Amino acid sequence: MDNLSVEHLTGIRDLTRADIELIFQTADSFKEVINRPIKKVPSLRDITIANLFFENSTRTRLSFELAEKRLSADVVNFSASSSSVKKGETLVDTVNNILSMKVDMVVMRHSSPGAAKFLSDRISAKVINAGDGTHEHPTQALLDAYTIREKLGTVEGKKVVIVGDILHSRVALSNIMCLQKLGAEVMVCGPTTLIPKYIGKLGVKVSHNLRQALEWCDVANMLRIQLERQDVKYFPSLREYSMLFGLDKALLDSLSKEIVVMHPGPINRGVEITSDVADSKQSVILQQVENGVAVRMAVIYLLAAKIDRQ
What we know:
By secondary structure, the protein is α/β, with parallel strands linked by helices.
């Protein structure tokens, strides 16, 4: 299979396992490119991509922009905080105005779950979801799974625990679906108040004991507490959360086996993970960042192949 089965990347749930494997194979090629002295390829020289970020983002936006420029695409950046959205313009009007400037692809982050799907049904350009509210963040899940594959040789049969604020995390939902499609076992771990009620229906294990979860897993993906999405208090204090669900070097070294430690960022050092863990040899956090560019290059490249050039 040389083509994706989807026209847009709005969520992991739309992808087949073959789609994910194709993205990974394509990312392997691009990883070689970004490690060369000349890091660009002319693949998308005639493509224009608009980055629409209606929510704050640093790493994801920079990663997409770098991926686009490495592919030689023309890039337009749009920040909602300084746009007509503030004046009451609708999402579709905003995007149609941008598309009338002959944009071929839109990378969008939005606070409303389903915004990327809503948009993909209404415009002709290809749409990539860079995070929609607490719903999905497909490219983060892809780069996380790609990093596990790179580190452990395969995702199939591996045990992955996602620790932290599962309730407010779009990374957790996308990761669960992506890892399961690739044959991994998934567990979530955190305070009862931060584990969604529906989680059992997704076929994942649930633990409220960090040590037990870490003894079970091959990979621990540590999520930050999303205080900006919390309108009520879900636990007494960050200090108490850190004592129960924070990963420090003493706990890591006391485990009966060596595990891989991941974090999608941004890291709240000293809360969910300490600096000596984040910077340890078991951590693949910086590899995740590097792989993010290669995986996003692969997604953009494969979707660009579906653009009608008429």
